[in-house]
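Morning, I've got a small favour to ask if you have a moment. It would help a lot if you went through both lines with me. Thanks so much in advance, here it is.

***
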Amino acid sequence: MKRKVMRRAAGALRDVWRSRFGRSAPGGGPDRGMTTSEYAVGTIAACAFAAVLYKVVTSGAVMSALQSLIKEALDAKF
């Protein structure tokens, strides 16, 4: 009796896993993750985005806007 209940619970858990992740067990299937070349392209893209973001944030217009925003926040009267 106990085995039947355990088997039914395990089957239900397996069905939930398959519906959520689309495969029967972790680590299976042909697309298990990124390959080394995908990591390299992703790293280069992240570095390029960081460089562009750094240039934008350190530009004169953005720096002055941030400084004025901080100044107004610190000079707020309660």
Remarks:
- The chain has a mean pLDDT of 82.
- The CA atoms of residues 49 and 55 lie 10 Å apart.
